[in-house]
Amino acid sequence: MLVHTERRLFTVEEYHQMAEAGILTEDDRTELIQGEIVAMSPIGVRHAACVNRLTEALSHYFSGKAVISIQNPLQINEYTELQPDAMLLRRREDYYVQALPTGEDILLLIEVSDTTLAYDRMTKLPLYACAQIPEVWLVNLVDNLLEVYRAPQADAYTEFRRMYQKDTAVPLAFPDTPIAINDLIP
To answer: Are 147 and 162 in contact (CB under 8 A)?
Structure first.
């Protein structure tokens, strides 16, 4: 006899209530993806070093031009809240104290990928495209390169480019600010 089971999907609001009630703690590395609570991979040494480099580079280039958000939550929709490694957000005087940023607030989103490379490409990128985030950089630590995704349509990006350590990337939102890929990849 086959028993039909139904999954219970959570909203972002319920996900936050779990944290407030102590069911989820700061030590629980999780994301809410399409209503499901998903455990995040542990951060390795190279991944952490890359995020540190990103933090320094973004601070150098964009301090005062954008809100620099490192490993903070991003609400995609009612059922999805992710924690990208870095985001450049539109400047707001309140620094997003009233609500988490949404897709329309993002100028550039950056994920650092090593063990999560396939997951980031297959699961997270379509969510970012659905949220109309104009540009996503995937720092690919497996192949030591930067993958640049632009022009979201539906659940995909229509422009894709690989950039190597000798190259320079220029964010769409800041066309006068080239960044050496070598500065991003440890």
So the answer is: yes
Percent helix, percent strand, percent coil in the chain, to nearest 5: 25, 30, 45
* Residues ≥6 apart with Cβ < 8 Å to 67: 88, 89, 90, 91, 92, 95, 96
* pTM for this entry: 0.91
Q: Domains plus CATH for the chain?
A: 41-183 (3.90.1570.10)
| Radius of gyration over every alpha carbon of the chain, rounded to an integer in angstroms | 17
Strand order, beta sheet including 67-70: 67-70, 86-89, 106-113, 135-140, 145-153, 156-164
The amino acid occupying position 116 is T
Contact 36, 7 (CB under 8 A): yes
Written as tens digits, the pLDDT of the chain (186 aa) is: 677 778 888 999 998 899 989 898 878 888 888 988 888 888 889 999 999 999 999 999 999 999 999 999 999 999 999 999 999 999 999 999 998 898 899 999 999 999 999 999 999 999 999 999 999 999 999 999 999 999 999 999 999 999 999 999 999 999 999 999 998 987
